[in-house]
Specification:
The complex is a heterodimer of chains A (121) and B (267).
Chain A (H helix, E strand, L loop, with lengths): L1 E6 L3 H12 L3 E6 L2 H10 L4 E4 L8 H10 L7 E6 L4 H9 L4 E4 L4 H10 L4
Parallel strand pairs in A: 1-2, 1-3, 3-4, 4-5
Helix pairs in contact in A: 2-3
Chain B lengths: L2 H15 L5 H5 L1 H11 L5 H11 L2 H12 L9 H18 L4 E6 L5 H12 L6 E7 L2 H9 L1 E3 L9 H7 E4 L2 E4 L1 H4 L2 E5 L12 E5 L9 H14 E8 L10 E3 L5 E4 L8
Parallel strand pairs in B: 1-2, 1-7, 2-6, 7-8
Antiparallel strand pairs in B: 3-5, 4-5, 8-10, 9-10
Classes of the chains: A alpha/beta (121), B alpha/beta (267).
Chain lengths: 121, 267
């Protein structure tokens, strides 16, 4: 089973994303911020990460920078998922190593389309 | 919706467009018509249908048929088809031509297919010049296509994020396609069932998931006209499950065909 880590400080977003991804046979784990996500990745590197930007403790961008320096940290496909829609900011996330980018709000079709774009489904 | 109303609508669509509404399209008639019912100030879809029956003028009949036929679509729909276009079809056509290639998106709906082609051409290692013609039965769809404006949801279906950043810019709540891509496309209202003439043959025609709904006799007529509109050796792209008639040979990915080059009769 493919694994996906959903990182978002909103419980609602995590729940919605989990439901959609489980529908595509992903085994889903959750983290509430970048720090928790990094700990999760060190224990077991997931194949995919759905990553929020603005979170307390460690934000998505900082997490991504650190992740890519970890052993095997290049492996996960990272899909950013944020309400940030300014092209410069999106480009910044891609430069930091994100593979795809979802602008919130999303629906199941967008998640499916973007995961397909990233070669995950 | 009552079975009688649905039957009436199907007969109307068939008479005006040659299309047989089956399965999903018939089933979703109510959903498709409710925005129109609101715009027309009708109390319900049933009320709208009643008005059409009693005093439907040409404008209203046309609006109803268009609302019933419009198809949801996405950018780069069927990735395999666009990969084949980018890797094989467009480069080989470009190599054999001096001027811009003539491409027709027939049944273009909201224009995502036409703009996907424009993006392919712009992103090709050696930029390919395209004259893209986009046609549809629905003037509302053409208007939207021509505006080049797509919602937050539309730009996230089929379009990679890097493609969005490269070819679109934010415009209020939506995204607008870049002017140089917009200039590649000409829009025209056309019912494929009516007689149509093209001034110069096309090198590539995309007519995906359009003719399948036609009655066989009408479908044959449309294919005949498409064949005439294509240059010999030109490419025809249909839906993945659609098949082209005798004048074409399958070429590559599902739904991609080439018009036969007429053989000189052997002595």
């Amino acid at each position: 089973m493919k694994t996906c880590l959903v990182v978002d400080d909103s419980r609602v977003v995590r729940k919605v994303a989990r439901r959609i991804l489980e529908g595509h046979d992903f085994e889903v784990t959750e983290a509430v911020d970048g720090a928790e996500a990094l700990a999760t990745c060190r224990a077991a590197m997931p194949e995919a990460i759905l990553l929020d930007w603005n979170m307390p403790m460690m934000d998505g961008l900082e997490f991504l920078r650190r992740l890519r320096k970890e052993p095997r940290g290049q492996e996960p496909t990272v899909i950013f998922c944020s309400a940030e829609t300014h092209p410069d900011r999106i480009a910044e996330a891609l430069d930091c190593g994100a593979d795809e980018y979802i602008m919130k709000p999303f629906d199941s079709e967008i998640i499916e389309a973007k995961f397909a774009e990233a070669g995950l489904i | 919706m009552s079975p009688g109303d649905l039957e009436f609508l199907c007969a109307l669509v068939r008479a005006r467009s040659g299309l047989v509404l089956t399965g999903e399209r018939g089933f979703f008639a109510e959903t498709r018509l409710s925005p129109l019912a609101r715009r027309e100030g009708a109390a319900s879809v049933a009320d709208l249908v009643q008005r059409v029956k009693i005093a439907g003028d040409d404008r209203l009949l046309r609006a109803v048929v268009e609302a019933m036929l419009i198809q949801e679509t996405s950018f780069f729909r069927d990735r395999e088809v666009f990969a084949t276009l980018a890797e094989t079809v467009l480069p080989s056509l470009a190599a054999a031509h001096d001027g811009p290639l003539r491409v027709w998106s027939a049944g273009c709906a909201f224009g995502q297919e036409a703009y996907s082609l424009a993006m392919l051409a712009a992103d090709a290692p050696q930029r390919i010049a395209l004259d893209i013609f986009a046609s549809d039965l629905s003037s509302a769809a053409l208007e939207k296509g021509e505006s080049g404006l797509y919602t937050h949801f539309e730009v996230q279906r089929g379009l990679p994020i890097r493609g969005l950043l490269r070819h679109f810019e934010p415009a209020d709540d939506a995204w607008r396609i870049a002017p140089d891509l917009r200039q590649m496309v000409r829009w025209r209202r056309l019912n494929l069932v009516d007689e149509f003439k093209v001034s110069k043959p096309f090198d590539l025609i995309l007519c995906r998931n359009v003719v399948d709904g036609f009655y066989p006799a009408i479908r044959a007529k449309v294919f005949e006209r498409l064949e005439h509109a294509l240059a010999p050796g030109g490419w025809l792209v249909l839906g993945a499950r659609e098949t082209a008639p005798d004048g074409f040979v399958a070429a590559g990915a599902a739904g991609i065909f080439r018009r036969r080059i007429a053989l000189v009769a052997a002595a």
